[in-house]
Amino acid sequence: MEKIYIQKKDRVITGPYAVEQLQQKQLQSTDKVWYEGLSEWKRPSQIDFLKRHISSQQKSGFFSRIFR
Fold this sequence. Notes:
This protein has a single domain (about 5-55), classed as Dna Ligase, domain 1 (2-Layer Sandwich), CATH 3.30.1490. It is about 20% helix and about 20% strand. It has helices at about 50, 55-65, and strands spanning about 5, 15-20, 30-35. A hairpin with a 5-residue loop joins strand 1 (about 5) and strand 2. The protein is globular, with a radius of gyration of 12 Å. The relative contact order is 0.20.
């Protein structure tokens, strides 16, 4: 089981988290993540098993702002 660290826009690093905890942490596509085995911090959308943990509120935010 991977232990994931999250770096938010403010550059504060939190974690480690189990994959199951990421939905509670409201993982955003703009966040960066790292776990042992990665050579560098990456966006969650670049990692297949993390894509489904990106906050659904954030995913739909773009269209909700356009079509208000």
